[in-house]
């Protein structure tokens, strides 16, 4: 009942997941990312522990195929699950249980992975992949959304639309971007709007927050305000 794309941006090293479905609050259960290590999407009849435990396995240095095999081996409900994993090296592994609802399947690309179930057809994944490849000049968040919009135009979730999410991590252990549309008539359009809003102030404010290299971040509000004003002015 969901399709998602996991990708790594070559320009920034960021890892990202975009997902959409005809179900409530997909961003709360499907996407999981371990900063600098890899990303996991757990879908169909979701098992949240695929994401929780999978992130732990990424941190142990396990490869995607080993992670998938370990997770499904411990789950008697695995034939109703779909899971795909991509690490920071671009290695990919997927599981689609035989009881997942058609159309269901997976597409492996160069630096990205797409999986879906309960879709209008295979064209959803093909068009998602095609748009991701074709839009390599777009900033990473916009590229992921454009890919999902193309998949939706091909039919998306065959039941309709309800929620979507975009999760991106960079060098830090907190997200660069975490956008969720939990219940909306056109969730990907709303996700696209929120991403545009994030560029107005959040993208600039994020740069003054604490990091591992600078644990205090920037706390002088005059510097913060001035840097945001300068960045915003530069975009006009």
Describe the 3D structure.
By secondary structure, the protein is an alpha+beta fold. It has two domains: 2-184, Glutamine Phosphoribosylpyrophosphate, subunit 1, domain 1, CATH 3.60.20; 200-236, no CATH class. Helix content is 33%, strand content 26%. It is built from seven helices and ten strands. The protein has helices at residues 48-59, 64-73, 123-134, 140-153, 187-198, 202-205, 221-235; strands at 2-8, 15-21, 31-34, 38-44, 81-87, 92-96, 105-108, 112-117, 163-169, 175-181. A six-stranded antiparallel β-sheet has the order 7-8-1-2-9-10, covered by helices on one side. A four-stranded antiparallel β-sheet has the order 3-4-5-6, with helices on one face. A hairpin with a 3-residue loop joins β7 (105-108) and β8. α1 packs across α2 (64-73). The longest helix is centred in the C-terminal third of the chain and has 15 residues, at 221-235. It is globular and about 60 Å long. The termini are far apart.
